[in-house]
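Hey, I was hoping to borrow your eyes for a little while. No rush at all, and the record is pasted right below.
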Amino acid sequence: QDVFSGMPNLENLGLDANIILFTDDQLKFPPFKDLKHLTVLSLHSQRRGIGQIPSNLLQGLSSLEMFYVGNTNLAHLNPDTFKFSPQLWFLDLSKNALSEDHSIPAELFHPISRLTKLLISRTQLRSLNFLLNANLSRLSTLKATGNEIDLINKTLIQSLPRLEVLDLQKNTFTCDCDNEFFIDWAKNSNSTQVVYLNKYMCSYPSSLRGMSLSAFNTESCTLNIDFICFLCSSIVVFLTLLSSFVWHFLRFQVVYAYYLFLAFLYDNKKKQSGSTFQYDAFISYNAQDEPWVMEELIPKLEGEQSWRLCLHHRDFEPGRPIIDNIVDGIYSSRKTICLIT
């Protein structure tokens, strides 16, 4: 517990490639509590791994600025890990297994708001969304190579306003419109250098596997409002001209087609209603021929042939429009007899 008690002015401590294990029992007395001036601590590449960093491991290291804990078999980080080291500006977590959800909680970074460089390469990460609420407004360098990251969204980039260097090589990017913002931003950003962008390769979909991410055509994802407005206005103009032409030269045919269509609908309605014929024939004639109809035609058909005829003076419903009476009379009769003289 007092292994470093005689070195209060120690500033740089490297314990790489050792066999150091930290358990809660062993950390009843924090090992670095007397190193108040320590600025650099490296625990990189422990042969048996650290496992999990206890929440009080860094107790006493109020001046700590750089912390290396890569390749130590870390699987989870306690949210209170850095609460004793508010001056930390460099953090290396590379080569650990941090793929599980909440392995890196956003609260982990709240005490170290001065962090400017973060290395999380080869940590099996599938997403960088833990940075959304990390409040890393000063982060300038982010290196996350060799992970399984497939998507970088706009919100993530906006949460890192001072980002200057971004390295995401050897990740499993998806080449579709979900990455449209990142691709355009990586190509055109004047404040952030995306390292070796031309080496970022598509992993999904399978048809684009192996293609450079920067070669994906993002224009196909953009809705061209100007073109749509032009297309709509052109269609409106064309339809206006076409309807004017049709009405001027074919208006009688159009009117005829309209009434023919109405008759078709009426006929279907009558057929679906299952109504039976009330008359054998509907008689259509000119008023000047009425004497002949009354004296010759009706006695012949109704008297001798026993037909049931529909006659306007006898069978039309009083008070109804004449057109409605005629239509009902026609559709209520098996045949229509049109008298032409």
User: Anything to note?
Assistant: Residues 108 and 174 are 28 Å apart (CA to CA).
